[in-house]
Structure formats: C-alpha cells, structure tokens
Write a structure and sequence with these properties.
By secondary structure, this protein is α/β, with parallel strands linked by helices. It contains six helices and eleven strands.
C-alpha cells in the first residue's frame, strides 16, 4: 500500500478543476488499498504547507494535477518535489493544452519532458484542434470528452499497460479529450509509454512519458515518474459526464463511455498499475 498525495495546483474553486472533480480517481486508488489524501493548495503565490515540505513528509507518491494557467507552484514547492523524487518518491504529473500547467517546468527532468506554447515549446508548433479557436498549440484532438481514444504502444509492452482483461494483454483505450498537451522523451531515462492519434489530422502524439533509472547528484536512485499529456485522462467528467464540468468547458461531449463502460473498467487497471509502479522500490507495498 502506498501513501498517495493527490494534489491540484489551484486553490479551492467550485467552477474550476479543483480536486473534487477527480473524486473517481481517488476512489479507485482507495479501492486498490492505497491511503489517499486529496487536496487543493491552500494559498496562491505563497508556499503551500504540504507541497513546500513534501520531501519531509511520509508520502510515497505525488499525483500532481497541474490545472493552473502557469503559476501553480512556487520555487520552494518545485524544489521540494525534486527532492521528494531524489529520496525515492514516485511522481505523476498531468497538465493540458497550450500553457496550462506550465508550472511543471520547475521540476527538473520531469519538467523538461513537458512542452507548452510559450515556455519549452512543443517542437511540432502545430495547431491540431480546430474546434476551439481560443486554444492554441499544443492541443492534440484525441476525441470528445466522454469518448474513448485508441492507445498505440510498441513492443515490448510496458508493465503500466498490461492487463489480463483483454485478449491482447494490454490496455487499449484511454478517455479522450479535444485538446491534449505535449510530452516527449527528450531527456535520459525517459521513454514514450503510449501514443494517441488525432481525430482531426491523423497525427500521432504522446499520451504519456515515463522516467526511470535516474540518479540523484548524491548517487541515490531517484523515484520513478510519469508525465501525462492531459489531466483529462483522470477527471470525473471524462469518466462520467453526469459528474459535471466547469462552466468554461463548452465542447460538445461524446457518448461512447456512457454507452459502453466496459472499456473504462479495463482502463482503470492502468490506474492501479500506476500506483504500483510509482511506489518507491525500497519500501514495502
């Protein structure tokens, strides 16, 4: 069992992607036996009492939902998260389109694998989603909220994608989103876990990148990490449209998950795999 901090980068806001909009994710992790603390940050522009001293806590994992517009972490918090990985803690980050979640850039190698519009730009420099003109690149269109997207992965299939629930032995579908962000395996120790495909251009893009085998300055092995292209892989709204959404989300939803929840049930194996894989190697499960 892991002690997991499920954390957003915004303060409490009913009409935003606050942590209550990830309640199904928290429930899934708890059902798998993990101790989950789900919280928003307490203040804006000042050090959060948990994030700023994360490396001194007894958390095993940080699942960081970067739902801010670029100012979601202070410098002290970023340094504490890096130290948390340096002492073996596992970290998952999830951002979204354009510059949403660009505070992640302060997280060392885990920040470098995230590409945005203004900072550490996506090398593609191409607008993919054509339906929401206000959102610029990176904005990969994998499908409507409430729909599925196919997952493309090369052999050998990573342990994170394995499941006994499909004939092929791997997770084949993720929740879709109209404008996902950009992640790449651009640093040593990084590997592309899986790719999606744009429903607009047919272009392949990375859904997630994993980092493992990194070593801290003092020679200790760093904790594993996963960088997701969008937090919508985990949001309640993308698993169950009836859970609702912030008022600023205006794209027409899909109906595939509601019509056939069986593929979502298989996808939840990915959540459980993540929690097992991110658990520090030197600690008991």
């Amino acid at each position: 069992m892991s002690k997991i901090l499920l954390q957003t980068t915004i303060t409490e806001s009913a009409d935003d992607w606050n942590v209550t909009r990830f309640s199904l994710l928290a429930a899934e992790l708890r059902a798998a036996g993990h101790d989950v603390t789900a919280r928003n940050r307490l203040g804006r522009g000042e050090n959060d009492p948990v994030l700023s001293r994360l490396d001194t806590t007894d958390f095993d994992q940080l699942w960081l939902l970067a739902v801010d517009v670029g100012n979601g972490l202070t410098d002290d918090e970023s340094r504490a998260i890096v130290r948390f990985r340096e002492r073996g803690g596992g970290v998952l980050t999830a951002r979204d389109h354009q510059d949403l979640g660009s505070c992640l850039l302060g997280l060392g190698s885990l920040g470098e694998v995230n590409h945005f519009h203004l900072r550490n730009p996506d090398p593609a420099h191409q607008r993919d989603d054509q339906d929401t003109p206000a959102i610029s690149w990176p904005n990969y269109h994998s499908g409507a909220n409430g729909d599925y997207q196919p997952v493309f992965a090369t052999e050998p299939i990573h342990a994170l994608l394995r499941t006994d629930a499909t004939p092929g032995g791997r997770i084949e579908w993720f929740p879709a989103h109209p404008h996902e962000g950009a992640v790449s395996a651009c640093v040593p120790g990084a590997t592309v876990l899986a790719q999606g495909r744009s429903t607009v251009s047919g272009r392949r893009f990375n859904l997630a990148v994993v980092l493992e085998g990194e070593v801290a300055v003092d020679g200790r092995p760093m904790g594993r990490a996963v960088a997701e292209s969008t937090f919508h892989h985990f949001a309640d709204y993308n698993w169950d449209l009836d859970r609702g959404k912030p008022s600023f989300v205006g794209e027409p939803p899909g109906s595939q998950i509601k019509a056939d929840p069986s593929r979502l049930a298989v996808y939840k194996n990915y959540i459980r795999n993540l929690a097992m894989w991110l658990h520090p190697a030197d600690r008991d499960q």
